[in-house]
Write a structure and sequence with these properties.
The protein is of the alpha+beta class and 146 residues long. It contains one helix and ten strands, in the order H-E-E-E-E-E-E-E-E-E-E. The chain starts with a helix and ends in a 5-residue tail after the last strand.
Length: 146
């Protein structure tokens, strides 16, 4: 009788372990598949004023392709200023789903506003996914000197 109890106990334990491994594997697979991912967007061009006053706000409009279906979207800008340089990263988001309509998604002039400039020449560096930079510049003058 003792061997029958051990056999059934072992069978129950193996069955429980099998279910745990099966269901845990399915949960991990679903979580990984549904997670959002973030990426640098390739910027084709930017539009900004050549000259602004120190009291003005700089408006930079960004253009480029974010993705190939509507599961892609603009996420955020990551701007950093370093003396005479404005470094900008443009981030996109991919939220995978089953109902993603095909078609290109664009930045369409997404705008970044920056203020509090000192007089001088500034360079705008936009970081690209391949490590290159899109570069432009502007001059900041005292109010009334425009």
């Amino acid at each position: 009788m003792k061997s029958k109890i051990s056999f059934y106990t072992g069978l129950i334990i193996l069955t429980i372990l099998g279910y745990m491994i099966f269901f845990t594997g399915c949960v991990k697979f679903d979580e990984e598949e549904e997670q959002e991912t973030y990426f640098l967007v390739e910027v084709d061009s930017i539009d900004l004023a050549d000259t602004i006053a120190t009291s003005d706000t700089l408006f930079i409009s960004f253009y480029g392709t974010i993705g190939t279906n509507d599961c892609y979207s603009f996420s955020h800008f990551y701007p950093q200023t370093d003396e005479d340089t404005i470094n900008v990263e443009v981030w996109g988001k991919l939220a995978p789903g089953e109902n993603c309509d095909s078609g290109l998604v664009y930045l369409e002039g997404e705008q970044l506003n920056i203020y509090n400039f000192y007089q001088g020449t500034y360079f705008v560096h936009v970081y690209q996914p391949d490590g290159s930079l899109l570069i432009d510049s502007l001059t900041v003058v005292l109010p009334g000197d425009k």
